[in-house]
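Predict structure. Chain length: 240.
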Amino acid sequence: MSEADHASPKPAKTSGSPYAIDHVFMLVAPKGTREMEKLAKGGLTKSWSRPHVGMGSANIFLCFDNAFLELVWFDSEAEALTSPVGKRLVERWIKRDQGAMTFGIAVRAPASDHPMPFEGWRFKPPTASDMVNTVTIANSSDDLGQPFLFRSQRSIPPSAWTDGLAGERQRPGGFGSITRWTLHMPTGVAPGPDLLMLEAQGLLTLGPPLGPKTAWTIEASRVDGAPPRRFRLPDCTWED
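Prediction complete.
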């Protein structure tokens, strides 16, 4: 959809949204080595890494106090294609040079029975997976030009996790919480209704296009009270 084709008005801003961005994932080449090297230059560290058993993929968590960044890659595309979610993500990866967006957004609700603010279908992870909760995948995720939007597995932020997966979060580099998520759609591509809804809910900001591909500007607070720092995806470059 082009910007010219998009005629829907922006929904009104919502005050005190019960929702939050739980995490944003980015599809990367196996192991995410290039991305981790660049993010580490600014002080970010890996919190945890694990395979998605039964889904053919694996990840790295970079946890902040209130949310996390996830790098996801495929160890086995054949296995990934056996899952309805894996199949959709493989398609995005294969078509990344043809306009497919390689980012996903997980929205966190305050409780497991709280309704989500978007329409979708239910996905139950494979039996072998350690992801036990059935989640909602937004119908808009079928549009490769929009982010893969879904409900997060958890209803609490990394600072409240008790399973050790958050590690020290980003305390070693002096970071606290992610204070702003800014999504830059590609030039000529309009945000869909679900993205406009997330902006209206105050979960993210839709920034100006930065070129022909999707980008994120992520702002993170400093625990010592210094000004926040910003880095950009997918290049993993720092603004300061």
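Summary: The chain has one domain: 20-238.
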